[in-house]
Amino acid sequence: MIRNYFKIAFRNLLKNKVFSLVNLSGLVFGITACLMILQYVSFELSFDQFQTDIDRIYRVTNDRFQQGKLVQHGTITYPTIGKTMAKDYQEIDAYTTLVNGGTVKFRREKSIFQEEQIFYVDDHFLTFFTFPLLVGDPQTAMKAPNSLVLSESNAKRIFGAEPGEYARLIGQSLYVDLDTEPFRITGVMKDVPATSHLRFGALVSYETLVRTWGPWVKTSWDGSDMWHYLKLKPTADAAALEQKFPAFSERYFNGDKVSGSVEKFALQPLRKAHLYSDYEYEIGIVNNGKAVWTMLIIAAFILLIAWVNYINLATARSLERAKEVGVRKVAGATTGQLIGQFLSESVLLNLFALVLALILTVMLQPILNEMVGKPLSLSLLTGQGYGGNLMALALAGVFALGLFLSGFYPAFALSAFQAIQVLKGSFKRSAKGIWVRKSLVVFQYTASVVLIIGTFIVFRQLEYMRKKNLGFNMDQVLVVSGPALTRWDSTAIDRITSFKAEVKRYPAIQAAASSLSLFGNRLSRSFNVKRVGSNAEKGVTVSQMGVDLDFFDTYRIKLLAGRNFITTDSNPDGRKVKNAVINLSAARLLGFSDAVSAVGQKFTIFGREWEIVGVVSDFHQQSLRHPIEPIVFQPFYTNGGYYSFKIASTDLEKTIEQIKAKYQAFFPGNDFSYYFMDEQFNRQYRDDQVFGQITTFFSFLAVLIASLGLFGLSSYTISQRSKEIGVRKVLGASVTSIVALLSKDFLKLVLIAIVLAAPIAWYAVSQWLEDFAYKIDLSWWIFALAGVLAVGIALITVSFQSIKAALMNPVKTLRSE
């Protein structure tokens, strides 16, 4: 019986090729889009899921308040916090502390290896987290100073070691940057999974910091560079533990007397660290959780649109199949058998579409991976992604449910025809069935219009951020990383100055500068900064940036008052530097009415006085997600900073080679690495750009699928009115009037969809824009433009069939009837 169902179903699909092709195309595109989006969503949701005790692991966050104002919302805090909390609260089972060591170069014999990210971690780290060691003891690997654990990749890259040979590396030595003391390898670990928010290629023992930075890294209550993670006992309640933290702050910080800030601590679950972090000084890889869940909603919409197409097209063919149902019923077919027959057609078409969608997904996989910059694959949906095997089962269940529901309604509707009415020729379409089909069309276009509006808003915001005046000019600025392997000495500033002067001799170089940090980087902060002579008892918080005397001219940052730095402001001994330039926001924060009144005044940082010699205009140090920072600029130099060169030449390759030659002459033994400042700055918008590209691509697919459905539905509807069209033409109706008559019913549905979509889209994009400190206004014309575009697409889709019907010879139409 079932075999017969599928045989007849296959014949029906071949018999109605246009119907089958339209339906199949919609399903293939819909399922493919859904599979591709779900890979991305599964990857993002699976971050840190490999951690054995993820549900018990939290990281400590620290908000700092001065004069009742939040001055820092961060994940870094003081070195004593994790250890003290573990001592004070029995709910805590374990803790670990780490410091971001940045990128370093490894030296072995005469070889220097490219930069690698390292963390300084305590001796709890390898037993706290699930980062398995392949060789070495996780209990002791991080106990001694200068202990080093390498990843598998680095073991191979540096030592050429293959699996099974790692044991020979234990005890061998490596040098890090310019450190003269060797680091002893105590372990080799598996490469960190791509879905870990903590990404690193090597670990160095925390005890090393005690030797290099001093004992404060264990005892300080006001030096803030550490990240702390806590593991709670299985029965502990994180919310209840958080309620005890205000007392913790009062006990150890006594208001703001210890650190200069009122400290508020909280716990963030590890499972939320990747997608729900709005914190400063983020140590891990983060993404926008709203965007990820939006992608999941888009996937659901696209799949629903595809299934709605099937329902609409199948029920629209009801008149064509009515006689078939009538004959079958007269021949003795039961309602159950008819439902089984029509469900078989649905199953066959959906399974064929699934196979084609899987093939298409595999073919498009490289394009998708390049677009999002992530290692996606179908394996993320079959056990290796979020939820493991439950994800695969859930997807199979959703597909089966959707297949059944999309096939059940048409099957039920078609099998319900009365045989006598059909065979007598008195069968008519039910008003209820027409209403259902119209409702489904409205749903399809509502979803499509929401996606169109969302795409417009995303790209307008990205364009706004790209074109907005940031307060500095970064066009054609080449940035070269400083010589980390050159030692700092009394001649360092002269060497840096000479290098810049030599490069500036090239006609293509307009300006050159050096700095400790650059735009887009999170700057260090100083708390409890006070204006000298002010009556204010409380200090303020400012960011700090080390720059040379050419920095403001190179980036064309406007000087508002006072002067720029001069040569005598700098000194190889940083303790002798006393002059500073501040931006306008810092001047206002310190209580000055304008830029001019700030010049010549003094302020203190950590009790040391600085004189303001100049005030520059504000600029956006970070992306437009962040407000402008109050910044203090100090004339500091370092070998490990950055060089910025303003280039006026179109022959960039030649200019870069010239700079490289001078760099290698002044700083032998250092790698020459560079990038362009605008490219680096705009990387802050990478996730937003990916989100925009994905929404654009899949919005186009959603509109295409909806249009396919509308095309098929209009085709069948118009074919049923062929006699009416013939009569109207005989009576003198013009082609234009017939096209308008046939199109208006569908356009009414699209207009209803636009009205429904507008508030939904407004709410959705408003939520997305909340993440930006600077954003576009939601102008009415964006919604109107999306509506006009939707109407245009629908009109083109329907008009094709309408014009074809209106041009048909009425004699032929009426004769065939």
UniProtKB/TrEMBL annotation:
Keywords: Cell membrane, Membrane, Transmembrane, Transmembrane helix
Domain MacB-like periplasmic core: 20-245, 449-640
GO cellular component: plasma membrane
Main subcellular localisation: membrane
Location in the cell: Cell membrane
Highest taxon of the lineage: Bacteria
Alphabetized Pfam families for the sequence: FtsX, MacB_PCD
Residue spans crossing the bilayer: 21-41, 291-313, 347-368, 388-420, 440-459, 690-713, 746-766, 778-800
Domain ABC3 transporter permease C-terminal: 297-405, 697-810
GO MF annotation list: transmembrane transporter activity
Membrane topology: Multi-pass membrane protein
Protein name: FtsX-like permease family protein
Protein source organism: Larkinella knui
